[in-house]
Design goal:
endonuclease, disordered C terminus, nuclease, 4 helices, about 140 residues, Ribsml_uS5_D2-typ_fold_subgr, hydrolase, single chain, RNA-binding, Ribosomal Protein S5, domain 2
């Protein structure tokens, strides 16, 4: 008898550990020498080309208590950002992206439009070679 979970294919859009910036050195490399900065009213994306062996986009989040006071709001912003990145990542080349909050973020601030705009701009500026897209997790 087979395990029904093993028979199901992996979802086409996933956010794996390999798609995250994890080490301080990775963040430092992106912050120190970005090839592009993408601005919106409250958000700023730093973009740097990926490492030579890298085949996919990676995301790092630097959302501080100073800019987003409540943990609930910080976590919601992280969740939304990861979700938009998940859907944009298959169309991106091998880039490292770090998102920071520029201005204080309040509950009234609607960041959905800003996230959509900033990730659409990122996808236009750094498209992937569609023949190399691997959507398996």
């Amino acid at each position: 008898m087979t395990n029904p979970q093993s028979a199901t294919p992996a979802p086409p859009f996933c956010f794996t550990k390999a798609q995250r910036l994890l080490s301080p050195n990775d963040f430092k490399r992106v912050f120190d020498n970005p090839i592009k900065k993408i601005h919106s009213e409250h958000l700023l994306l730093f973009v740097q080309t990926g490492m030579p062996e890298q085949t996919h986009a990676r995301l790092g989040l630097a959302i501080t208590k100073k800019k987003v006071k409540l943990a609930v709001m910080r976590n919601r912003l992280k969740q939304l950002t990861r979700e938009y990145f998940r859907h944009t990542a298959p169309t991106l080349g091998a880039v490292d992206v770090v998102l920071i909050v520029k201005k204080n973020y309040t509950k009234e601030t609607d960041l959905h439009d800003e996230l959509i705009h900033i990730f659409e701009k990122l996808a236009m500026l750094f498209p992937s070679d569609l023949s190399k897209i691997n959507q398996s997790c």
